[in-house]
Amino acid sequence: MEQLVFTAFLNRLFGPTVLALLQALHIHPKHPATPISNSFAMELLVALLLTILFIAVRVRLSVERPGGLQHAMEGINGFVTNMADEVVGHHGQEYVPYLATLGMFILSCNLIGLVPGLESPTAVPVVPLGCALLTWFYYHFQGVRTSGPVGHLKHFMGPQDKDMPLVMRLFLPILLIPIEIASHLARLVSLTIRLFANMFAGEMITLVGFSLIPLVIPVGLEGLHIFVSLVQTYIFVLLACVYLSEATAHGH
């Protein structure tokens, strides 16, 4: 795969160091001369841009004279807060920092491909998988923190009503635990494939459009790319809220 300009820059600066680190971990990259991939470079660029954005917002925070950037960030925070309150419940606000950061990262990764010379890292499977894994571990961690290890494991066992017959109370966990484990693992696949497939298709349609069709139509395809990016970000964050709601429901 052809290197992007930013990827080539990173490989010139840090390529030997990264290669040595990977080899020390017994990981052998496919292209030793260029161990830093385009997707990782784009993730790093997005992280740097978001860090600069957050610093700029923090420096310019004002109660009396809020600027346009502050209003925009407050709007994003308010949107995610309302979503968390509606889906997770009254305790959802404590998860807003993670959800807002996750959403901004995914949306930025989705949209950065619109910039000439860059590409969307979410169009590569490993990046959506990383976001899915992080979310998966996060909601399980919050479930354990809220209900305790035993309480969280009870989510996998089904209802344990004392009025139920003893045989049923013993049989249900045996039946439901494997199903619940498979269900939770399937969430990783679902989150990953949904985001990757949509962004990969959007990238391919845009590339084909610009190579085959006059300029006006590809501009419309860029609008479609933006719409898909927004929708996929919303769905990912919404599902993260749903999983947090299920994991922490019995803690209150």
Task: Describe the overall structure.
The structure is a single chain. Helix 4 packs antiparallel against helix 7 (216-248), helix 5 packs antiparallel against helix 6 (166-212) and helix 6 (166-212) packs antiparallel against helix 7 (216-248). The protein has helices spanning 5-24, 38-59, 68-87, 96-111, 126-153, 166-212, 216-248. With 252 residues, the chain is an all-alpha fold. It starts with a helix and ends with a helix.
List keywords for this structure.
single chain; 252 residues; mainly alpha; 7 helices; 74% helix
Tally of contiguous helical segments: 7
Radius of gyration: 22 Å
Oligomer: single chain
**Can you summarize the main beta sheet?**
none
- Estimate the mean pLDDT confidence: 87
Alpha-carbon distance between the termini?
51 Å
User: What share of residues are in beta strands?
Assistant: under 5%
Q: Into which percent range does the helicity of residues fall?
A: over 70%
The tally of strands reads: 0
Order of helices and strands: HHHHHHH
Low-pLDDT regions: none
**What general outline do the C-alpha atoms trace?**
globular
What would you call the structural class? Answer: mainly alpha
What is the compact description of this entry?
This protein has helices at about 5-25, 40-60, 70-85, 95-110, 125-155, 165-210, 215-250. The chain is an all-alpha fold and about 250 residues long.
